[in-house]
Design goal:
single chain, alpha+beta, Deoxyribonuclease I, Chain A, 6-stranded mixed β-sheet, 6 helices, 16 strands, globular
Length: about 300
Amino acid sequence: MPNVRVATFNCENLFARYRFRDNVDPDDAVSDGWLADDTRFDINDRDAKRITGNAIEATNADVIALQEVEGLGTLKRFRSKHIDRGTRVYPYVALIDGNDPRLIDVAVMSRYPITRIRTHQHVKRTPRSSYTFSRDCLEVDVDVRGTELTLYVQHYKSMMGGRANTRDRRMLQVRATRSIIERRFGRSNTGNGYWIVLGDFNDYMTDGSSLGSLVNWNQVEEVVARLPESERWTHYWNRGNTYSQLDYILLSQSLAARSPSDPEIVRNGMPRRAGRYTGPRFRGVGLNAPKASDHCPIVMTVNVP
């Protein structure tokens, strides 16, 4: 069985020119989905991009899902300038402009050929409803040595404005994701297919979680739960000195049964203020900045037929 390393990483405002400042609601920093208020952002520096590239390299991923990427051109430029041999390592990329007014999209980079891309950004609950997905549910098929592996890349509604206040929107997105998968792989024995749901889910699996109907679905396994509870955190929020899991990799039942290893969480790009991580950092990581992201990449070795 061939092994494929699959990763997810919210690379935090991977823009070509700027990044939003801390404590700024990016939804308030744009006037029409294009023009940004220049009092709300700083010029993005090369050190931060270099460290973000270091974090991606450290995953040694064959296929990596990314969140918060400005656009396809930005991703290709980043790949060539900040990932060693990036164009050769990841010759295949997928990104479709989605719904976010800040122009942050979800994307995939792959060593293996991408054979099919489908956007679900136009899904609505009713014809008069707003779009279901805050960004997109990007569906990508990858040809792994003859086996078709399907990724569903997510970046659900953020908790900005309050976890409880935004819960219903995330629940709607979670239900829509599950429905999309069931339509593709069948409503019975859905987990027999070779598919993965992954990305920044923007919620915790604690009381009141919006994620339960997907993360606890009997057709998947949430593989980060294989780690000790104290080792599951993927996000650091310096204002509250909070460590939490916001990022997930859900393997279909079939893939989970074939893939016994534990996932790995790459924390070398975390700011030094995140003192729970005591291991080595990438060169140049600062107390708060520069850093790779406020999220950590997760990588999982998956065995496909």
